Amino acid sequence: MSREKEQTIALSAVFQAAELVSILAKTGKVDNESLKPLLDSILMLNAASTEDIYGGQWDCRSNLALGRRIAQQALGKERSSVNPDTLRYALSLIHLENKLSKTPEMLSQIGQSIINIEQKKAHYESVLHDNMLASISGMYQDTLSKLPFRIQVHGDSRFLQQPQISNQVRAILMAGIRAAMLWRQLGGKRWHLIFKRKALLSALEARH
Questions:
Q1: Membrane topology per the record (predicted)?
Q2: 10 Å Cβ neighbour count for 121?
């Protein structure tokens, strides 16, 4: 698999997280088929490949299809059709992860939290369980929320004030940070979204 292809898997996950936050904040609902692979990726510490982090064949309907489509629109000629909040969240996730990467103590704290949450998972049937979402949300609050740069989520306050939904929002942001970290580890940089758009688009559009 080419480096650009791997980068686009991570980028699709970033955009999927951004879009889900945007939808959830405005409607109070989110598609679990798009949500689950993102949340599972947070606990995936020893994947054999980039694809495996998101459940294998990444362009299947059930894992990163939503993020892949939005990434194609954002990098291509349909940029204006992408929700402005989604673009803002995606760029903010990349920016926030860059700040996190310079904070080794916080990275260590997140690593320990992930191990603890992974152990809890055995007690619940799915990472989508409210208690699992609350644990991932708590990890975000205890770490990333304390950095000077914060992602401001805009939406309907009737939804955002509900603890269950605010937990979901923070859990999705945590998954977005995981994807942004993978993007950086694979050599992705913010300026690539402008100057390497053609190569990234080609990789996004390839079927294999």
A1: Peripheral membrane protein
A2: 16
